[in-house]
Amino acid sequence: MIKPTDVQIDKIIRTKRKTIALQIRDDAKLVVRAPYNLDDETISAIVSKHRRWVEKKQKEVATRNQKLYPKEFVDGEGFLYLGRYYKLNIVDDQSESLKFEGAFYLSRYALPHAQEVFMQWYKDKAFEKISERVDLYAEKRGYKYNRIGITNAQKRWGSCSFKGNLNFSWRLIMAPLSVLDYVVIHELVHLEERNHAKSFWDKVKMLMPDFESRRNWLKSNGYLLTLWSNK
């Protein structure tokens, strides 16, 4: 744990990036992404200059997290799917662990493992829907990718490897389709634009002219895409 003079840095991640970036995680910890050649002292000095921003964001996250509770998996509880909340029904006469038909139906025998059942259902649906949207937008621009993977990432919504592998967090299936599409387009454009230069955003905008509103939605509401609830 790195401790500069007045701001606690919980983790430093060094990559080939050219600039420094500050990230407040969902647990309110500060992560700094920095270039390989930037020493700890310089990083600490930069972070200290942004102390007020860090403290403000950490306070916002801490306040938000006080309103989050684990799902209880009871009748009538709401679960997100493609941007909408659907009620959960616990049923006795169902062979499938979990079924979706305008509402969620969870077999009573699956209750002891409800969270794992839901997570697997979300992962399966995420792969299905994301694959469909990737192919749709890849065809529009002639992008060629290698494969699609679904991850357990909590903060990173998507990634694109140099081998052309596209990875997406399963939590995206909880977001509105337009927001999911933004992340899909974002990663597809990375197949030819590796950084976030102006040319990258220009190409994103060609496929989604209002991408900024989708990106802002994710920044403001991404914490809701979880198996926790904000009661």
UniProtKB/TrEMBL annotation:
Any matching Pfam family: YgjP-like
Domain of life: Bacteria
Domain YgjP-like metallopeptidase: 18-221
Transmembrane segments: none
Protein name: M48 family metallopeptidase
Species in which this protein is naturally found: Acetomicrobium hydrogeniformans
